[in-house]
Amino acid sequence: MGAPSQSTSDKKATRDAYGEALVELGGSRADIVVLEADLSGSTKTADFKKHYPERFFNVGVAEQNLVGHAAGFALAGYTPFASSFAMFLSGRAWEIVRNSVVYPKLNVKLVASHGGITVGEDGASHQCIEDFGTMRVIPEMTVICPSDFNETKQVIHAIADYKGPVYVRVGRPAIPVIQRDNYQFQIGKAEVLSEGKDVCIIACGIMVSEAMIAVDALKEKGISASLLNMATIKPLDKDAILAKAKECGAIVTAEEHNVIGGLGSAVSEFLSEEFPVPIVKVGMKDSFGKSGTWGGLMDYFGLRSKDIVSHVELAISKKLK
């Protein structure tokens, strides 16, 4: 389905950053162990296996066992990173995540690759668009979706130092690397990528680079847009959201996820009680994905910069006069 994906020659996949960060951590910390469910080539944990085979464990196609083993390593004092596809780690293993990892507050890092519709040709069965929702509803769970390669590396190092359960989604395709100066990721803190007064766009993952393009397009239309990279979906940076809601009076959220249960829902839940403003959500409109090139699917399901622009115009039209 759809047009061919755009060239990725100057882009990098966030899953590749995960693999590189694991190798870096393995060299400096003997407590790091990596567990895999027979997908190490795809999740990029195979890089860690090459360097530290004695601390790599493939449990096979058994995601519930994967999470259970990770819980055991955490109880033994290790810092386990457990990986599989997002569909399986957040879906098939959900009850084990809840009761064996998060409820006892174990120091387990769940890093899920191949999230969202950019899985592409694998189709709807593997295109997880529910994981933000299923993970963030677990009490005291931290949920993160980094925007690019460089931020992903920082995220993996940050969660290795953080004590407690974390879920991180990384992606399959090579996506734009965002140019930043002196950026340092912090759990629960939004990154301000643009300042504006007419509307605030709040995005995560691949949608951040699309939102950056949208900000420029809106400027040409005379619309001044703020942009927040909300890599941490839970806990939300409520202070940043509230400040932008008061300043701009309208919010647009953008995510590669169902509009039900994800970033848009989290922002709406917060602002509905604190400072209600018009909120319009860019994302999967309560529909499953399809098989096709990831770029074609982004076009088909309205997850491009032009779609953000149209949603911004709708949000502004809803502002109280």
Count of separate structural domains: 2
Which fold name fills CATH's third level, the topology of the largest domain? Rossmann fold
Shape: globular
Question: Which series of helices and strands comes N to C?
Answer: EHEHHEHEHHEHEHEEEEHEEHEHEHH
Q: Termini distance?
A: 42 Å
CA-atom Rg in angstroms: 19 Å
Q: Which class of the largest domain in CATH terms? A: Alpha Beta
What is the strand arrangement across the widest sheet?
Answer: 3-2-4-5-7-6-12
Content of β-strand:
15-25%
Cofactor: thiamine diphosphate
Organism: Leptospira ilyithenensis
Family: Belongs to the transketolase family.
InterPro entries: PDH/Transketolase, THDP-binding, Transketo_C/PFOR_II, Transketolase-like_Pyr-bd, Transketolase_C
Fold and architecture overview:
The strands form 3 sheets. This protein has a 7-stranded mixed β-sheet, with helices on both faces. It has 13 helices and 14 strands. By secondary structure, it is of the alpha/beta class. It has 2 domains: 166 residues, 3-Layer(aba) Sandwich (Rossmann fold), CATH 3.40.50.970; 126 residues, Rossmann fold, CATH 3.40.50.920. Strand 6, helix 8 and strand 7 form a beta-alpha-beta unit. Helix 4 runs parallel beside helix 6 and helix 9 crosses helix 13.
